[in-house]
Amino acid sequence: MMKSILISALTCILFSCSSTKPLPDQDWAGKKWTLVNMNGNPVQVSHTDKDAHLVFHTDTKTISGSGGCNRLTGAYLLSKSSLKFPSTASTRMACIDMAFEQAFLDWLKKVDAYEYSGTELTLKEGKKSILVFRQTGKP
Fold first, then answer.
1. Cβ distance 68 to 91 under 8 Å?
2. CB 3.0 to 4.6 Å from 124: which of 10, 25, 65, 113, for a disulfide?
3. What is the pLDDT of residues 16-48, one digit of tens each?
4. Domains of the chain by range and CATH?
């Protein structure tokens, strides 16, 4: 009898001590994340609104941003170990470097994992880093 009471008490203590750490997108919200590297290649950053970037809207689990020319929007799914962008859409203006923008959107579809370290957000396909963003202020 005493043994089962002790086990029950220890179980309660264990579960009450575990904390639910918030997902990192709370830190990402309302900040502009500018693309600085795509598939291992540095990206030229102009510090204008035309830089490829993302903004996370945690209240609706959506993103907005730019592919470098066209505006983009979409949804994201986040867990402690994965990040996915199941649907994205963009405007369709003709631009000088459409190949860059299309590559960015194609890589975004392949994202299934992430690493986050304060001011840098690395989006991955498996263990491979495919898109690296730096926090560059507010949108």
1. no
2. 113
3. 443 455 688 888 998 999 999 999 999 988 776
4. 20-135 (2.40.128.270)
